[in-house]
Design goal:
By secondary structure, the chain is α/β, with parallel strands linked by helices. Helices cover about 40% and strands about 20% of the residues. The strands form three sheets. Strands 2-1-3-4-5 form a five-stranded parallel sheet, sandwiched between helices. Strands 6-7-8-9 form a four-stranded antiparallel sheet, with helices on one face. β1, α1 and β2 form a beta-alpha-beta unit. The two termini are about 30 Å apart.
Length: about 230
């Protein structure tokens, strides 16, 4: 199997070398960009499988870099882990809303960083293979038939409710911001009123009954479906 390629966007030379050393020891190939501008030069020239992105960069900051990555069709599906010294909740929320897949605060454990990267890449690999049947406990979704059952009882959903449920279950355990759900379910941008998400989630919970308890509200961030 070819080595997975990781782009490290970090302006601290000691930290980038520490990350690169631990990743290469674990079988990855690494590239380094000391700024957003350098990172985009690498992305233009190399195919990468994962991006580690520092938030505090010279010139273009990490949030802007993440936003531009997610807007470009060439790179928008590459997993991004934000690595920063800033630990305030607002930074985590903004990073996740812009499309980051995970978030670590400095100082960090290199071993934990490698484990998180491997876990995210495994998850992405599973998601890349579309499933026709989704099951969580007694809740079953037959995608080709557009059928939802809970404890073998049929549940009628609108096309948008069905798509919303599929997205939440396919990404269960991970918080989905309202903006991201608008983009992935409704194919519209964040300027549309995000309250439409809340309305659809409320109706979906009501229709699912007890199974609707699996949809959790994460205050200030969005929604997620419980892993179990």
């Amino acid at each position: 199997m070819p080595k997975k390629r990781v782009l490290i966007i970090e302006d601290d030379d000691n930290i980038s070398k520490l990350i690169a050393y631990n990743l290469e020891k674990s079988g990855f190939e690494t590239f380094v960009g000391m700024s957003g501008e350098e990172a985009f030069k690498v992305l233009d020239q190399k195919m990468v499988d994962f991006i580690i992105l520092d938030l505090m960069l010279p010139g273009m900051d990490g949030l802007e870099v993440c936003r531009l990555i997610r807007q470009d069709a060439r790179w928008k599906r590459i997993p991004v882990l934000m690595l920063t010294a800033k630990g305030e909740e607002v930074d985590r929320v903004v990073g996740l809303e812009l499309g980051a897949d995970d978030y670590m605060v400095k100082p960090f454990s290199p071993r934990e960083l490698v484990l998180r990267i491997k876990a995210i890449l495994r998850r992405v690999s599973v998601e890349a293979s579309p499933k026709e049947i989704l099951e969580v406990g007694a809740l079953k979704i037959d995608i080709p038939r557009h059928e939802v059952t809970f404890q073998k009882r049929g549940i009628e959903l609108t096309p948008m409710e069905f798509k919303l449920l599929c997205v939440l279950i396919e990404r269960r355990g991970r918080v989905q911001s309202r903006d991201r759900l608008l983009a992935d379910v409704w194919d519209v941008h964040a300027e549309i009123d995000t309250r439409t998400i809340d309305t659809h989630v409320k109706r979906l919970r009501e229709k699912l009954g007890k199974a609707g308890d699996g949809i959790e509200t994460v205050r200030g961030m969005g929604y997620k479906f419980k892993e179990e």
